[in-house]
Amino acid sequence: MDDIVLRGMAKWPNVPHAYGWLALDARGQWLLKGDRITNPAVTAFIGRNYAADSRGRWYFQNGPQRVFVALAVTPFVFRSAADCTLVAHTGLPVSATTEAWVDDLGRLGIGTNLGPGIVDDRDLAALCARLVGPGGTRYPDEMLEAWIAGDPHAGPPRLDVCGEFLALQRIPASALPERFGFDPDPRPDPGEPEC
Q1: Predicted model pTM
Q2: Which tens digits make up the pLDDT trace of 83-142?
Q3: Which residues, at least 6 apart from 74, have a Cβ–Cβ distance to it below 8 Å?
Q4: CA–CA gap between residue 102 and residue 24 (Å, rounded)
Q5: Cα–Cα distance for residue pair 181/55, rounded to 1 Å
Q6: Is 41 exposed, middle or buried (0-12, 13-18, 19+ CB in 10 A)?
Q7: According to DSSP H, which parts of 76-135 are helical?
Q8: 3-class SS at 21?
Q9: Which long-range contacts (CB under 8 A, 24 or more apart) does 2-7 make?
């Protein structure tokens, strides 16, 4: 976290948390009360001070105040860089991947050292081109459609992320929060003061 944030937390340790103000959409855009934040300095500041608490609630530490984030899908949204690496919506590079999945809405997700995230839909074509079958050859589109539809004869494709091959799983979108331990819509506890 930024030094100014850490100093603010030390100076004012009991500032009430904010809920319902900040959201993250499926393309990694920050929304303030439904309006997209477009200032690059502000989005970078939010990204540098974005974290999760022990209950899986993601927040932006804004000086002494935690501003909890409503998540459209997952805590992270990834873009594919030219060198085949992944970069989070916060600007952080992914250094390790653990698993990959497709949800029932057709979104591609990846478990990483940062946390779970979906791939920005604008990068799906590039990443689908990195799907390989058992022999290491490109996984045909028609087989992918059959696998997604549940065809038992279509073996799961593997996603090549810079030489790490992750077997795709099917995970319903509704199961993602429990599976990965995050709260998509944090709310205050009964009686908790809030802004």
Answers
A1: 0.90
A2: 889 999 999 999 999 999 999 999 999 999 999 999 999 999 999 889 998 788 899 988
A3: 109, 115, 116, 117, 118, 176, 180, 182
A4: 20
A5: 8
A6: exposed
A7: 124-128
A8: strand
A9: 2/45, 2/48, 2/49, 4/63, 5/49, 5/61, 5/62, 5/63
**Spatial CB neighbours of 42, under 8 Å, sequence gap ≥ 6:** 30
Tokens 């604008």 belong to 122
Whether 169 and 99 have beta carbons less than 8 Å apart is answered as yes
Residue 118 corresponds to which amino acid? I
Q: From residue 35, how far is each of 29, 75, 122, 132, 180 by CA, in Å? A: 10, 19, 21, 39, 28
Mapped onto helix, strand or coil, the DSSP state of residue 27 is: coil
* Token duo for residue 159: 């996603």
CB environment 53-72: b (16+ within 10 A), e (fewer) = eeebbbbbbbbbbbbbbbbb
